[in-house]
Write a structure and sequence with these properties.
mainly beta; 2 domains; 0% helix; six-stranded parallel beta sheet; Jelly Rolls
Length: 295
């Protein structure tokens, strides 16, 4: 090139000579994964070739690391071929490796350690180890309240008496085959007037499982109740009850919920026995807690 006056001195191009924004990622071929790339000659520094296919088009002397890579794992392996001629790959202290730039997502957490962040949501299809607590719900009646008194030796659910309180609790999303631990705390009252018959009172847990049609089926949990024995004389008794039972979930209702009730009935059909459930303010509140446990 011709100049007027003294020609400029030769020097190396530096970043100061390149205006900001003059070169973008689109101008750098490294950011695009090519279909095929040729490799030959001396590899004496850490080098990477980004391509689906690598063709050796000349003898190759590797004294450092040559990485054949792809941006991500697309399910197809990187191929290494020649250009049809016999080529030699040699070198001392070097290596030829294949990898991807981005890590393949880990589908298994086996062997991994760390802390799960607060924003992570666990899906409903996750399987927990046996004995793991899946969920817990609880409720209470802390004001003074009495259920209706019953003298029937047939099942009477407290929730279905005329008392305004619901002596029950619903747990949703329970899974068939798991266990539900039912815990209740309350006062249980029983009286009898006969002097020649033994009177007995029962408070029994019952669960209602909606089959999805709006019909609730009552399951009496036989043996999963408590027993109060008054004796052979006219008597009345109050008993503070704190009970827990492990109940098997035989069926997951399509409606997605199981309801557990406190029930009451009497054992003797004569002697005018009577029972009722009581909750007093601050001292003996009715408390119910349901805990689903992985079987």
């Amino acid at each position: 090139m011709a100049y007027l006056g003294t020609p400029p001195k030769s020097r190396v191009l530096s970043s100061a000579d390149i205006a900001t924004g003059a070169v973008t990622l689109d101008d750098i071929s490294f950011t695009d994964q090519s279909t095929s790339v040729n490799v030959s000659g001396n590899i004496d520094k850490h080098t990477m070739r980004l391509s689906d296919e690598v063709v050796i088009d000349g003898d190759l002397n590797i004294t450092d690391n040559l990485i054949l890579s792809k941006i991500s794992d697309d399910g197809n392996a990187i191929t290494l071929t020649t250009d049809g001629s016999t080529r030699t790959i040699e070198g001392t202290g070097g290596s030829l490796e294949a990898s991807t730039l981005t890590q393949t997502p880990n589908a298994s957490l086996t062997g991994m350690t760390g802390t799960v962040g607060s924003g992570v949501t666990i899906g409903s299809d996750v399987t927990f180890p046996a004995g793991h607590v899946i969920q817990t719900v609880a409720d209470s009646i802390t004001t003074a309240a009495d259920s209706d008194t019953t003298s029937s030796n047939s099942l009477v659910l407290v929730e279905r008496c005329s008392n305004i309180y619901d002596w029950k609790k619903t747990i949703t999303g329970v899974t068939s085959g798991n266990w539900v631990v039912v815990e209740m705390n309350f006062m249980f009252f029983m009286s009898r007037t006969s002097t020649d018959l033994v009177g007995s009172g029962y408070g029994i847990f019952h669960s209602t499982a909606d089959d999805g049609s709006g019909t609730s089926t009552i399951y009496e949990t036989s043996g999963d109740g408590f027993y109060i024995h008054i004796g052979s004389a006219t008597n009345t008794t109050w008993q503070q009850m704190a009970v827990a039972h492990l109940l098997y979930v035989h069926k997951s209702p399509s409606a997605g919920s199981n309801t557990y009730y406190l029930g009451q009935k009497v054992y003797a059909s004569s002697g005018s026995p009577a029972t009722r459930i009581h909750s007093s303010s601050g001292k003996t509140p009715f408390v119910i807690k349901l805990t689903e446990v992985q079987a």
